[in-house]
Amino acid sequence: MRTQNLQKRVADLEFRQMSTNKPHSGATCTQCTFTNLTVMNNGGFYFMNGILSGLAPLPYFGEGNLVGTSMIITNSTGYDLSGATQLTFWARGEQGGELIEFFVGGVGRDPFSGVATQPFPDSMPRFPLAGTTFTLSTDWQQFTIDLSGQNLTNIMGGFAWFAEATKNPQGATFYLDDIVYELTPARQAEQLNEPRFIRSYRTRAVQPDVFDANKDDDIDFVLREVAFTYDNALAMLAFLADGSADSLRRARLIGDAFVQVANHDRTFTDGRIRTAYTSGDITLPPGWLVHGKADTVPAPGFYVDNPPRFFEVENTDIDTGNNAWAMIALLALHKQFGGTNYMTATRNVGNFIQTMRSDVEPFPSFRGGIQAAEATNAVLRTYASTEHNLDIYAAFSEMYRLTGETQWLDGASLALRFIELMWDDQIGGYLTGTTGGSPDARNQAPGQFPLDTHSWNVLAVPDVLTRHPRLLDCPEHYHRTQSDGFDGFDFNDDHDGVWFEGSAQMAVAYAFAGVDSRVDHLRTTLQTAQQIPLPFGDGLGVPAASHDGVTSGFSFKLFLRPHIGATAWNLFAQMGFNPYYQTLRPVHVALIAFDVGKHPQLMLVGEPGKDYVLQKSLDLLYWVPVGTNSSTLGRIGFQDPVPATNRAAFYRALPLSNGP
Hints:
Structural class: alpha+beta
CATH class of one domain: Mainly Beta
Strand order of the largest sheet: 1-4-11-8-9
Largest sheet: 5 strands, antiparallel
CATH topology of one domain: Jelly Rolls
Number of helices: 14
Distance between the termini: 45 Å
């Protein structure tokens, strides 16, 4: 919410939203200062919803027209906070003994009588009543404002404070933190079922200086609330892979959020998806019209208060690959639930990707996206990425399979042709793409040889190992890395740290390639990474990398922070799940050896955590069980109790219906 000076007479007020002075929780708290200038002065601030005029948010107090503009107001513009039972907040004074009024509501109303003075006021008078003070101490205290029985249908003044010199002759400096509306169970359940995105990183509770020379520590501030499209597409696919009722519910929340943002972009109307959004609520407050549009999407970013400014993050460019991942996830949701919403959104995203098509030789492909996409001088990225074209190949192939529409098959064929143009016989692997120069050329720059052009190839292009049987030897040579006590894979070929997300991608690739010994090792590595303790881990999520500042060779680095993308890929690795096509690796049985008694020693490879029964037949008609077992890693050893004879025997594995 915006803050607005409630100054009634001459007063000196200071309001800092990013104080690092002993916050109650997190990295910052709000510092408020009231200075006694005349012995009789008073003043305060509202935390309030305003109105967006042009691109500048302005305070609004329920008038019929917005002061200082020609805008006419014809309806209420506050939040509907129905279902809130109380507001709680934490406060402490600098000296102790400060007497401060804290209250909710009252905008557009007389502060004493509560009578409306404007046509579109808050739906409730201020509460508690004027003159009700809270006494602060130097320790943090939690205070409560009871909202039971209040009309909360239109609230602009979400929270406010007011101080008087007569009650604070020395002035007052105090701190606020963790201001929360507590909801009824029913309203809370309703809100938890509203579409939203998941923030990409669990950042540390520190407040770095984003303007200093050290950029490696900015992640804890800059990306604190950012929800990347790629990460949320993976999260949606992970929930679908889990398949429980609650996970399917969560998958739909993310999918519905993608549909919402595609249909309510502040600028674009073609359904394209931006690189990132903000986590939490996915619509701007009531009264905020961007380019004349209501219910548009909040921009991801961060705010600094000296000088006051909001910086957007990852929101100005459009990336082709991120749109392809959104398309893959929305297609998966459509396959699960049907209907038209997800398919319509998928088609719109796919049509946008088609606009990135270039048939220009020698590298016909889908280009990288658009820089400064909202600017009048937007620039088409002329390079083409192998990763992007892999994503497009998978998305378009699946779209063709579901619709039979040949434009998707044609696009998939173009993407596949480009992918193969990036094959390098000398290194036995796939280059990252082209430079985008004039003339265009294959990108062979030092340090820009990524891991995922290999792992993703195995998963996106089902027959790639037929063409290049030793493809996975390339990342073993160029990307296998030992760092910080972990054995995994780096993002690029400089071996400066383990990239856990990429290591999980390799585990899935090995699972589908049938190299089970390497799958087990990487799964163990990922399980260990999941247990990295606080403050860099949380025992649940998998960090992006084994230490801060692991380089990618491109314009970003990787950090030791729990990461949604890495965590989703870990789930895929542990399950043997291919997110491109939502398939599990095939269950198969291999004969390992015979013991001294000629008993066949068999290995069943299936989905981790599942129970399987191994069956045997001598004629492929009648099957008898050999044994039942399960394994957390998906590899199960069996011994046939009957010694082998000269007669052929056949074995098969079936999952048990009561398995987890």
